[in-house]
Amino acid sequence: MKPAAFDYHAPRTLQEALSLLHEHQDEAKVLAGGQSLVPAMNFRLARPAVLVDIAQVPGLDRIEVDDPDSAMIGARVRHLDLEHNSIGGPLGLLLARTGRWVGHYPIRVRGTFGGSLAHADPAAEWCALACALDAEIHCRNTNGSRVVGAREFFEQMAFTTCLEPDEMLVGARLPRLGDSWRVGMAEFARRWGDFAIVLAVVAVECDGDSITGARVALGGVAGGPVRATNAEAALSGRAATAETVAAAAAVAAEEVDPTGDIHGSADYRRDLVRTMVTRALDQALA
Ligand SMILES: Cc1cc2nc3c(=O)[nH]c(=O)nc-3n(C[C@H](O)[C@H](O)[C@H](O)COP(=O)(O)OP(=O)(O)OC[C@H]3O[C@@H](n4cnc5c(N)ncnc54)[C@H](O)[C@@H]3O)c2cc1C
Known about the structure:
By secondary structure, this protein is of the alpha+beta class. 35% of the residues lie in helices and 24% in strands. The strands form 3 sheets. A 5-stranded antiparallel β-sheet has the order 4-5-8-6-7. The relative contact order is 0.12. The structure holds flavin-adenine dinucleotide.
C-alpha cells in the first residue's frame, strides 16, 4: 500500500516547524519516527496533506539530567536510547525495564518517546510510564508553551490527547525518584514485541519494610493509560509483603472496567491486571 499524496517539509528549527503547523493546522502532521504514522498513512487511516518531519530540529533528541530531581526527555529520544539510558537510579531502571517491551528492535531504533506519547495508543508502554510518574508534558506552538500533567494530557479515548493541531510535544519531565523508590514493570502480549494486552508500571516508596507511597499505572484496560488509585491506597502504609502485594493486585483488578475485544474478554483482561500488577510489584520489591 502507498499513502495518499502529501507535501513534505523538513524544517531545521523548532520555530520553522511550529510555523508550518500553525499555517496548516488540521491538514498537517508531525513526522517523528514514522513507526505509527507511516503504517496508518499506508492503510489510508491517516491522510495528512502536509508532513512536518522533525528529524532535523535541533535539541529534541536530548536527555537532560542537570536537575537532581528530574530528567527532561526530548520528544525525539528513541525508544532504544531510553532502554539503554545512563540516567541511573530508579528512574533509569524503570525506563530500561519498560523500554525493552516497546515493539521489536527495528521499531525501538526509529520510534520516539514523544511520538509514542502523542500517538497515545492505549497499550503503549511510555504512556503508562508517563501516567505512573505524573510526567510533565511540554507542548509548544507559535504563541508559546504550556506544561500539561500526564493525567490531563491523555484523554480516555484511544489515540486522543489534549494536543492542539498546531502544537508540538517537545519533551516530558520525569521525576528521578529517590533511592527509597523501587520500580517494576510487567506486560502480557501474545508474542514478544506485540502491543500489550495488559501492562502494569509501578513505583513504590519504601521505608525499611514499610511501603510509604505507591504509583500503579495500567495500559490496555481503557481508552488511555489509567492510575489504579485504589490499589495505590491498598499499598501505602502497609508492610512490603506478599500478602500486601496480592491484596493490592486484587483491588487493581476490581477497580478497572475493561472492555473485551478480539484479543481477550473483559474478564480475561481483569484477570491479567491482577497478574501483571503482582508481577510488577514483585519485581519492584525483590
Ligand atoms: C509492528 C509494530 C509494533 C509496535 N509495537 C509497539 C509496542 O509494543 N508498544 C508501543 O508503545 N508502540 C509500539 N509500536 C509503535 C511505535 O512505538 C511508534 O514508534 C510510536 O507509537 C510512535 O512513535 P514515532 O516516533 O514512530 O511517531 P510517528 O509514527 O512519527 O507519529 C505518531 C503520531 O504522533 C504524532 N507525533 C509524533 N511526534 C510528535 C510530536 N513531537 N509532537 C506532536 N505530535 C507528534 C504524529 O503526527 C502521529 O500522529 C509498534 C509499531 C509497529 C509498526
